[in-house]
Amino acid sequence: MLDTLLEHITDSGSKMTRFTTMIRIYSERLKEDLDTESVQAIVEDILSESRVIRRSGQMLKKRIVLSTREIESLRKDLDKIREEADTDMLTGLKNRRFLARQFEQESERAIRDHTPLSLIIIDIDHFKRINDTHGHIVGDRVLKIAASMIRECVKGRDMVARFGGEEFVVLLPDTPLNGATILAEHICTYFKNMNWKRKDTGQTIGQVFISLGVSEYRPGESLDSLIHRADEALYLSKTNGRCRVTSEASLKESYATAQDLG
C-alpha cells in the first residue's frame, strides 16, 4: 500500500520536474525571434504536458485518498486486535494482561499525586458445586452475569478484570482502604439479594455468594504484592464462613489476636 503510494508520488514528482525543465527551456527559446509556427508548437507542447501533469495530480490525489482509507481501516483492525488481546472473551471484562498495564499507570499516578489506590479481589463461593450440579454452560453464564453485576457497581476510572477462573479484581484509583471496603460490602450485598434462575428451564439455582478481600497500595510495591495481601484477606473471608468482606486492616487485627492467644 505505502509502496504503491510512493511510486505514484515519485512518478508525479518526475513529471513535474520534467515539466519545470521544459518550461525553463521554452522560456529561453521564446526570447529568440521565432516564427508563428514555432511559437504555436511550443504552446501546444506546454499545453500537452500540462494536461499530463494535471492527470498525474488527479491520480495522485485519488491514490492518497484511497491510501488514507486503507490506513484508517488497518488502524481500526489493529485497535480491534489490541482490544481482543486485553479482553476476557467469556465475560467481556479486561484480563490480567490489561490489569498489569493499568496498575503500572495508576501506581505511578498514585505516587506522583500522593493519592490512594486500592484493590478488591472477589471469588465466587462454591463455584465448583454450580458447575457440577448445573453444568459448565450454566457455570459460564453465572460468570458472565457476575461480571456484569460487579461492573455495575464501579464508576469513573475504576476497572474490573477477570483474574482467572471464578476470581475477579477491581482496581480503584483515588480510593483509600475504607472506601474500597465500603464498595466491597455493597457488591457483596448485591449478590446476597440476587436470586438466580436458569433461563432455559426456569429451574432455581438459588443464591450465588461471593467472598472478598481488600488491600491498599503501598508506594513502590508490585501488583503481585498488592494482590497477595488482598488474597490473604479473601482467604480469611473464606475461613470465617464465606459471603463476607475482609480488609487487610482486619487481617492485621486477626494476626494480632492470634499472637495474643499464642
UniProtKB/TrEMBL annotation:
SMART domains associated with the record: GGDEF
Domain GGDEF residues, every copy: 115-250
PROSITE patterns listed in its UniProt record: GGDEF
SUPFAM superfamilies: Nucleotide cyclase
Coiled coil: none
Gene Ontology MF term list: diguanylate cyclase activity
Example GO biological process: cell adhesion involved in single-species biofilm formation
GO CC annotation terms, alphabetical: plasma membrane
InterPro entries per record: Diguanylate_Cyclase, GGDEF_dom, Nucleotide_cyclase, Rev_trsase/Diguanyl_cyclase
Pfam families from the UniProt entry: GGDEF (PF00990)
Protein name per its UniProtKB record: GGDEF domain-containing protein
